From TrEMBL, chain A:
GO molecular function, one term: transmembrane transporter activity
Family assignment from sequence similarity: Belongs to the binding-protein-dependent transport system permease family. HisMQ subfamily.
Entry annotated with the keyword Transport: yes
TM region positions: 33-54, 114-132, 144-165, 171-198, 210-238, 292-313, 320-338, 350-368
Residues forming coiled coils: none
Source species of the chain: Aminobacter aganoensis
Protein name (record): General L-amino acid transport system permease protein
Length: 384, 364
């Protein structure tokens, strides 16, 4: 009888948990950190380095840090003319706190800073829905963001109309300058860069030559030279008293510069598209712009998202170069304030620079994560 | 992608910025040529009238130098150079706030003046013959007598109280500056040996000196006091008395406008005269009632005086200056002297009556 046969099971065996050596944190560590002697050695060296760096850093930045204060005495030891005990070493966040307004707005008048804050709120309110794919009405949102917002921001920030006092651009500074420069650079450079890239691959000799000349000239000159020429040499060629805004000159310089780099990134994408795609589009009878807009560019741009974002991030950080033409982006304002004798102490420069680095990192990391998100979302095949 | 191209970024001490000689000649050549072309246009317009029409003075200052021009917590400019701009504005408008500041890097400063972007330059600029002639500037006076000095670590070099005892020392210096050349000249002239420890950027020099990689730090003396504030044990460090180069720092205007030149020059003399006569921000109103004929002349309370109007200003111009910023001594002490963290002694910047070099021709 079959039911008497002891070794036939009538029900499925329950799944057994994996053996201990294959699961849990210990197994994970064995697999990832101590798989072989070399890995183990590397892990130990790494841990030692972390143990050497982290606690002092934590002590400096948090435990010993001076959070409040009105001048350098709060961030200097007794021997240095301050109130801290000898041998003290901690971050001087009081300096960052006292100068925070300047770091954000530069010397934008105190009573008018609400205008900058309003622009920032509008910027975020329009940018966030634009970045989230699920939110509807992308078209309207894009029009508001790329066309309406710049105009409104221009009048709000510059003023001089609707009873708003005029604020000259030399008073701008800090994060305001960093974000304005990089936002305009990003918004201008992508379309211009795409056009330049298409122009460079065009079969029309004049268009092609002009694009090649522009790209190669701009790429062949350091940004610092472009800014310096615009700021120092240009006024000498203009009649006395005629000058146009230095900030505008920097904006144009940065935008042109980023466009040339963007053009080369996009060209890389265009060249990666197989010829069959172009020929297929042609055989369907699509016009040049239809071919590019519907077939080639969507594939090409998707391929070069990392390159595009890389250019954006590079440009975001390059805005600091406007320091040499005496305009003060975030880093420039931070460094400028090191010269305030009321705050001069051994801890001030490090604290200011760490703060600036943190702000830059937040923005660059944000861009980087978003680009990874977009890559995954747009990844429709070609998985390697 | 280009950050490595940043070469020089001044912070505390962008003082007399002496780039490489070659670069200097090229730049001054270009600027000089450009200045000649621009001088004709600049000369025809009266700067005073332009300034009055604009309603404010546009003044070029440094992008940040402790005690001379630096932003405070509120973002307002403060410092010796900045207060001089305020004094000129006060003399013209009777209001020391009618001034706008243009922060300028060392490379930009002369172009900005020549192109008319600013009305005057008050940016710790060393007065040299080349700048007075080839660059088309007129220096109005010396608001601060500076010079290259030495700071030593007294713990590492005990008993040293003169630069002549520094033979064999390791000296930290910024490379590519005239500071470096002056240093070489000085040690050679005094037949002393030294080992230079050179760095590209001032921050690096500061850090190396603080870390004890060299015994001696050399740069302009006013800067040494600013650097001392950033050292971990400032009391161990001594600024030696020797000055090995002359760096007379003063405001400058464009050539070709004598009226404007006189105004800026006499604002400087007015500051000095006020100190000499004991006129201060606090007592200037009482002083107006003084019977002393010299004080009456200076403050414009004498009957039928034309001293101020001849200058193109109101007769109460000195009153306005002193009300706005105080006299020269007050400006000095507040920004770089005992009233500031820098605590620089008056030294040769004292009045001539006190053994210094600050001397004003009579106001009469």
């Amino acid at each position: 009888m079959s039911q008497d046969i002891g070794y036939v099971r009538t029900e499925m065996a329950l799944p057994q948990p994996a053996p201990l050596r294959e699961r849990g944190p210990l197994a994970w560590m064995r697999k990832n950190l101590f798989a072989n002697p070399f890995d183990s050695a590397l892990t130990i060296v790494g841990l030692v380095i972390v143990a050497m760096i982290l606690p002092p850093l934590f002590n400096w930045a948090i435990v010993n840090a001076q959070w409040t204060g009105t001048d350098r005495t709060f961030c200097a030891t007794v021997a240095q003319g301050g109130i801290q005990p000898d041998g003290w070493s901690g971050a001087c966040w009081a300096f960052v706190k006292a100068k925070f307004g300047q770091f954000m707005f530069g010397r934008y008048p105190l009573d008018e800073r609400w205008r900058v804050i309003l622009v920032a709120i509008m910027f975020v309110a329009l940018l966030v829905p634009l970045l989230i794919p699920r939110v509807p009405r992308k078209g309207l949102n894009a029009v508001l963001f790329f066309l309406v917002l710049p105009v409104v921001s221009y009048f709000l920030l510059i003023g001089g109309v609707f009873g708003l006092p005029h604020v000259e651009t030399p008073l701008w500074g800090g994060l305001l300058v960093t974000l304005t420069l990089s936002f305009v650079g990003i918004v201008v450079s992508l379309p211009v860069g795409i056009l330049l890239a298409l122009g460079r691959r065009s079969k029309m000799p004049v268009v092609k030559m002009l694009c090649v000349i522009f790209i190669e000239t701009v790429r062949g000159v350091p940004l610092i030279t472009v800014l310096f020429m615009a700021s120092v040499m240009l006024p000498l060629f203009l009649p006395a008293g005629v000058s146009f805004d230095k900030f505008l000159r920097a904006l144009i310089g940065v935008s042109l510069f980023a466009s040339a780099y963007m053009a080369e990134v996009v060209r890389g994408g265009l060249q990666a598209i197989p010829k069959g795609q172009y020929e297929g589009a042609d055989s369907l009878g699509l016009s040049y712009w239809q071919k590019m807009g519907l077939i080639v560019l969507p594939q090409a741009l998707k391929l070069v998202i990392p390159g595009i974002v890389n250019t954006f991030i590079g440009m975001f950080k390059d805005t600091s170069l406007v320091y040499i033409i005496s305009m003060f982006d975030l880093l420039g304002v931070v460094r400028q304030n090191f010269s305030d004798a009321a705050w001069a102490s051994p801890q001030t420069p490090a604290s200011g620079l760490v703060f600036a680095a943190l702000v830059f990192w937040i923005f660059c990391f944000g861009m980087s994560r978003y680009s990874i998100f977009m890559e995954r979302r747009l990844d429709t095949g070609h998985k390697r | 992608m280009l950050s490595s191209h940043i070469k020089k970024t001044g912070n505390s001490l962008e003082k007399t910025e002496k780039g490489s000689w070659v670069m200097k000649y090229i730049i001054s050549g270009i600027l000089g040529a450009a200045a000649l072309g621009l001088m004709a246009t600049a000369a025809s317009a009266g700067t005073l009238e332009d300034v009055k029409a604009k309603g404010f003075l546009q003044c070029g200052v440094s992008t940040g130098l402790a005690g001379f021009s630096a932003p405070n917590d509120k973002g307002d400019w403060q410092g010796l150079d900045v207060d001089f701009c305020r004094a000129v504005a006060a003399a013209i408008f009777g209001d020391g706030t009618k001034v706008k500041f243009t922060p300028l890097s060392a490379k930009e400063r002369f172009t900005a003046l020549q192109s008319g972007e600013i009305d005057m330059l008050s940016r710790n600029t060393t007065w040299t013959i080349n700048r007075d002639t080839a660059l088309g500037l007129n220096f109005v006076g010396v608001t601060y007598y500076d010079g290259q000095g030495f700071m030593i670590n007294a713990k590492k070099l005990p008993g040293v109280n003169s630069a002549l005892q520094l033979s064999g020392a390791a000296v930290c210096v910024q490379t590519g500056t005239t500071t470096e050349l002056n240093l070489a000249d000085y040690f050679k002239a005094n037949k002393m040996e030294y080992s230079p420890v050179v760095f590209e950027k001032l921050e690096e020099v500061d850090a190396a000196y603080d870390a004890g990689r060299c015994d001696v730090y050399t740069t302009d003396q006013s800067g040494l006091y600013g650097i001392r504030l950033k050292l971990s044990s400032p009391d161990d460090h001594v600024v030696l008395p020797e000055i090995i180069s002359k760096e007379p720092l003063g405001p400058a205007v464009r050539q070709g406008d004598d009226k404007w030149y006189h105004i800026v020059k006499w604002v400087y003399f007015g500051l000095l005269t006020a100190e000499e006569l004991g006129i201060t921000q606090a007592n200037v109103e009482e002083m107006k009632a003084s019977g002393n004929p010299e004080i009456k002349r200076v403050l414009g309370t004498e009957a039928d005086t034309k001293i101020g109007t001849d200058l193109g200003l109101g007769n109460d111009w000195v009153v306005n200056i002193v009300k706005a910023v105080g006299n020269y001594g007050e400006v000095f002490e507040r920004n770089v002297g005992q009233g500031s963290p820098l605590k620089i002694a008056r030294g040769i910047n004292a009045l001539w009556t006190k053994g210094g070099l600050q001397y004003a021709p009579p106001i009469r």
